[in-house]
UniProtKB/TrEMBL annotation:
<feature type="binding site">
    <location>
        <position position="68"/>
    </location>
    <ligand>
        <name>Mg(2+) 1</name>
    </ligand>
</feature>
<feature type="binding site">
    <location>
        <position position="85"/>
    </location>
    <ligand>
        <name>Mg(2+) 2</name>
    </ligand>
</feature>
<feature type="binding site">
    <location>
        <position position="217"/>
    </location>
    <ligand>
        <name>Mg(2+) 2</name>
    </ligand>
</feature>
<feature type="binding site">
    <location>
        <position position="68"/>
    </location>
    <ligand>
        <name>substrate</name>
    </ligand>
</feature>
<keyword id="KW-0479">Metal-binding</keyword>
<keyword id="KW-0378">Hydrolase</keyword>
<dbReference type="GO" id="GO:0008441">
    <property type="term" value="F:3'(2'),5'-bisphosphate nucleotidase activity"/>
</dbReference>
<dbReference type="GO" id="GO:0000287">
    <property type="term" value="F:magnesium ion binding"/>
</dbReference>
<feature type="binding site">
    <location>
        <position position="88"/>
    </location>
    <ligand>
        <name>Mg(2+) 2</name>
    </ligand>
</feature>
<dbReference type="GO" id="GO:0005886">
    <property type="term" value="C:plasma membrane"/>
</dbReference>
<feature type="binding site">
    <location>
        <position position="88"/>
    </location>
    <ligand>
        <name>Mg(2+) 1</name>
    </ligand>
</feature>
<feature type="binding site">
    <location>
        <begin position="87"/>
        <end position="90"/>
    </location>
    <ligand>
        <name>substrate</name>
    </ligand>
</feature>
<keyword id="KW-0460">Magnesium</keyword>
<dbReference type="GO" id="GO:0050427">
    <property type="term" value="P:3'-phosphoadenosine 5'-phosphosulfate metabolic process"/>
</dbReference>
<dbReference type="InterPro" id="IPR050725">
    <property type="entry name" value="CysQ/Inositol_MonoPase"/>
</dbReference>
<keyword id="KW-0472">Membrane</keyword>
<dbReference type="InterPro" id="IPR006240">
    <property type="entry name" value="CysQ"/>
</dbReference>
Amino acid sequence: MDYTALVDTMRRLALEAGDVIMEIYNSDDFDVKVKSDESPVTAADEAADALISAGLRAAFPDVMLVTEEQAASHTQSGDTFLIVDPLDGTKEFIHRRGDFTVNIALVENGVPTRGVVYAPARNRLFYTTADGQSVEETGPFDKAAPGATSPISVADSDNAALMVVASKSHRDQATDDYINKYAVKDMKSAGSSLKFCLVATGEADIYPRLGRTMEWDTAAGHAVLAGAGGEVVRFDDLTPLRYGKDTYANPFFIAHAPGVTLQES
Ligand SMILES: Nc1ncnc2c1ncn2[C@@H]1O[C@H](COP(=O)(O)O)[C@@H](OP(=O)(O)O)[C@H]1O
Ligand SMILES: [Mg+2]
């Protein structure tokens, strides 16, 4: 795999998809449909999916492609693939709350090794570079060439004063009970894969997810976090979260800076 070409392509497609999404976000009105799994989908999800899929297929015709919006038609299986969530945080998008992201990742042998997360309404762009180190690029973003970037790395965590981030729209008692096992300095809530990026930049120490997600929701954020020195483990046995699982469904997980002393479930 040519990682330089891959990262350039992922970055460009995420920015292009972000433009398409923002055009719809800023329009007066858009339709919301409900998918078979009861989750909402908009024209923005579909347009971004089509754009990214076409771009990845053209650039990497031999690499298997998994996308959220085409999940029902996936017939191939394997542990090396490109995986896309064209608009993560659709509820955030619909309610115009801004925490939504474009997500593109490469999974190799079950591990997300490269990824891009773009939050167009927040003007934040995170990705792994060709060498695997994670960076945040500061806008304005030029699709043709990367601008100024800064390396990001996880916090040097203080287990007596942890910053926790959790889902805005999927939050329950079990999550709160688990968070209460830690000495928490402060809590923040965020939508979408941005939560992984907040751990990656050191803005949070831990993101526990005791709720359903699919691999396309997490792969790009997971790659960005890993490239910043962080880890994502299964909630049940604290082993690394792996990809290419049956139906692409994730178990509950914990994303964290390595200095956090994890509590048992
Ligand atoms: N019951 C469920 N089954 C599968 N995925 C779910 C789910 N409930 C929430 N999710 C996933 O969680 C994502 C939202 O995460 P968060 O709550 O952290 O913002 C959604 O992404 P989409 O918005 O792309 O559909 C959705 O895929
Ligand atoms: Mg999603």
